[in-house]
Design a protein that fits this description.
By secondary structure, this protein is α+β, with helices and mostly antiparallel strands. The protein has helices at 2-23, 140-145, 148-151, 157-178, 206-211, 241-245, 276-281, 318-325, 364-367, 413-421, 426-433, and strands at 30-34, 45-51, 53-58, 61-66, 70-76, 79-84, 90-91, 96-101, 106-110, 116-120, 122-128, 131-139, 185-187, 215-219, 230-231, 270-275, 288-295, 301-308, 313-317, 342-346, 381-383, 387-388, 397-402, 411-412, 437-441. Helix content is 23%, strand content 30%. A hairpin with a 2-residue loop joins strand 11 (122-128) and strand 12. Helix 4 packs across helix 10 (413-421) and helix 4 (157-178) packs across helix 11. Residues 129-217 form the Sporulation stage II protein D amidase enhancer LytB N-terminal domain.
Length: 442
Amino acid sequence: MLQIVYRLHFLWIVTLMLVLAQASPCHAKMISVELVWNLSQAGWVQIDINKGDYQLILDNTTLKFPAGSTLQVGWGGWTPVLRVNHDEFQVFSSSVLEVKELNSGSLSVKTPDGKNAVYRGGLQLNWQDGHWRLINLVDSEDYLKGVVPIEMSNEWAKGGAEALKAQAVAARTYLIKQSEDGKKMISDSPDIHQAYAGMGVEGAASKAIEATRGEIIVDAVTKQPIDALYSSHSGGYTEDAKNVWGNADIHNVSQPDPYSQGVGGPVNRWRFIVSAPVLGSAFGLGPVRNVILDKFPSGRVKSVSLEDEFGQNKIVKGRTFVQAFYPFGQPIRKEAFLGSLFEVQKTKPDSTEPFGALGYTGFSELAASYQQKQGPLLSKIMSSSLGTSADSQPFGAFIFEGRGWGHGVGMSQWGAYHMAQLGYKYDEIIAYYYNNISIAKG
């Protein structure tokens, strides 16, 4: 009898250990994030230790660098220089220095042009080609705290917490996938990898990261991490990865996305107007007479065929066409060219129709000069970004009306937010946007 009791007790302990092992979060790891978004060509940088204990490692010298310490690095005559705690500047004879974190802390990075960001972890500075290359050495879960709020928004925690969780899992998966095959570096640029803004954007989204700690998206069969791609707004139809990057991916395929319809403000529906001469000049042609769109099944434009008034023809890839008018570095508004899911129509060459008749209000600030509350005449428009000309032009204009923002592959962030508002859980959101997957501990 006692043997049976001991055996049952042993089995209970083993079972409990297995449950705890499965429930325990994966261990975070240190990663390297190159700060190129706003600091790619930094010539002068100041690093202030806000809290925690650090070491400053210069060649073979290690200095204590506690909270309140300051380091300034710059250059003089193409030679790197540095100053520690406001002492005299000295020539830096090496090319690499490190501000090493000893315990949990944070530091500020400032530049003379007003850029100021706060980061957890440590910092490595490399002198290369006349500027400093900055690399944030940070815990992977702390890294996500600087990704999720800027890829989505801390405000989405109000009614959309499940979307933030879905974003946390996708961003963690993306990070792990990018670290495969010996890759040790990721950037903070949304144009290269995923946006990362450090500690300064941390907020309510951190709860979503903690709630999903260690969880990643894996292939349903191989259990390997997938390419967890995502974009801001699918425009109502996600895109096949092959149509964007040329490689087929069973996890990121094209499908209708009703959850991305009617949400997103200016990125839900946008309109861009451009005169025939300006459109032609963007691609080395005369005033454009005709535009023909070749589309993927999703409705996104594969290529644009242009014909000008002289009979010249040119075919432009859809993404190249968008990039010619995309508002780089400008606030996102509905009067901008935001993606490749669009239709086109041409106005009459001698149109005297005001913008307001089309529901277009983007030029309200110019309306007074034409004494029209509805905006300037279409015949005088150069483009939505360039404004108007003094004289009417005889070639007409083209109106591009589109939906969505971004490449459209994988999870639509606005769609995920809408799903969360409707009561869907983060695993259901992930299962909707990615095919042939499961969620596992990384």
